[in-house]
Amino acid sequence: MGTDMTPNGRRWAIRILLGVAVVAVAGAMLWMMPRAKPVYEGIASGNGRIEGVEIDIATRSAGRIKEILANEGELVRAGQVVARMDVATLQAQLHQAEAQLQQAHSAVATARSQVAQRQSDKVTAEAAIAQRRVELDAARRQAGRSAALADKGFISRQGLDDNQSRVESAEAALNAARAQVGAAQAAIASASTQVLGAQAAVEAARANIERIKADIDDSELKSPRDGRVQLRVVQPGEVVAAGGRILNLVDVSDVYMTFFLPTAAAGRIAIGAEVRLVLDAAPQYVIPAQVSFVADEAQFTPKTVETASEREKLMFRIRARLPPDLLRKHVAQVKTGLPGVAYVRVDAQKPWPAALQVKLPQ
C-alpha cells in the first residue's frame, strides 16, 4: 500500500497535530502560571523570598592574600578565621620598630646621664662660690688691716696696693663661680629637654609597634557573626587594595522575608505583628516571624508580578524577621533565596487557622 494520503486524510492529520499542539501549549501555560495561594479571612498574604543581611569581609590594609580558609556555601562561626594575609613585610617593620624602641631607650638613658652630669657641675660651681666668698672676705679683712697700718706708717704703700688687688681678684673669682652656676643650670635645663624628647621618641616607637601588631592581628580576617559564605571574591596569591573584599557572607542570625501588600492591608499592619511563612521548598512547615519593617511610602510591586493590572497597583514593602533563637537552633538549614508566601493577620483578634499553626522540623 502506498504512503500517499488523500486530501481528506491530510486534513485530518493536520487537525490532529494542531489539537496536540494546543493541548501542549495550554498545559505549559497552566504549569507556568503561579499557583493560587489559599485565602484566609482576616489574613493578608504576599509572595516573598528569604533574605539575609550581607556582610563583606575586607582587608584594612593593602597586601597579598596568603590563604582563604572558607569555601562558598560553608557555614562559619563568629570569630572564626576565614582568611590570612601575607605578613612578611609587617614582620620586618615590627623588627625595625622594636630596634628603634631600643635606640630610644638608650637615648633616654644618655640624656638622663647628661642631666646628672650637669647637676654635678652645678654643685661644684656652688661649692666654688662658697669658697670664693670665704677668700673674698679674707682679702677684704686683710686689706682693711693693711689700710690701718699704712696710715700709721707700719707698712709700705706697695703692701696696701697688693692687698687691695687680692680683694679685686677674689671678687672676680666669685663672679666667675656664679657664672658657672648659671651655665650649669642652663645645661641642666637643656639636658632635661633632651630627656623629654627621648621619652617622646620611646612613646612614638611603642605606638608604632602597637600599630604594626594591630595590622598583623588584622591580617587574620575573622567572621564578625555566624554566617554562610556566599562568594569568594579573590583567590590566594592575589594582591588587594586597602578595603578590598575577600568574602561575602550572609548573616544567618538576621534572616527575613520581604513581601508586598496593598495599601488597604499594609495600613493595618503594625511593627511586631505575627507572621507565618510557608516556603515553596518545604510547604509542610509553617515558620513564625514578626513584622520588623513597614515602608512609609508606597511603591510599585516587584517585576515578578505577572499581570499589568497588578503592576499598576501601589504596594507597601513589608519585612518579616525570623526569631534569632529559632535561626540558631536550625542554623544548618538556614538558606537564603528560597521563595515562599508570608501570611500576616490584619485583624489581630482572629486566631490563626489550623493550616497556619506553627510547625517546625524536629
Describe this structure in words.
By secondary structure, the protein is α+β, with helices and mostly antiparallel strands. It has two domains: 37-58 and 244-356, Efflux pump adaptor protein, beta barrel domain (Elongation Factor Tu (Ef-tu), domain 3, Beta Barrel), CATH 2.40.30.170; 89-218, Helix Hairpins, CATH 1.10.287. Helix content is 46%, strand content 26%. Strands 1-8-12-10-9-13 form a six-stranded antiparallel beta barrel. A four-stranded antiparallel sheet has the order 5-4-2-7. The protein is rod-shaped and about 145 Å long. The two termini are 68 Å apart. The model is unreliable at 22-35 (pLDDT under 50).
Write the layout of secondary structure elements.
Blueprint: H1 7-32, E1 43-58, E2 63-68, E3 75-76, E4 81-85, H2 88-152, H3 157-218, E5 220-222, E6 227-232, E7 239-240, E8 245-262, H4 263-266, E9 274-279, E10 282-294, E11 299-300, H5 308-311, E12 314-321, H6 324-329, E13 339-345
Antiparallel strand pairs: 1-8, 1-13, 2-4, 2-7, 3-6, 4-5, 6-8, 8-12, 9-10, 9-13, 10-12, 11-12
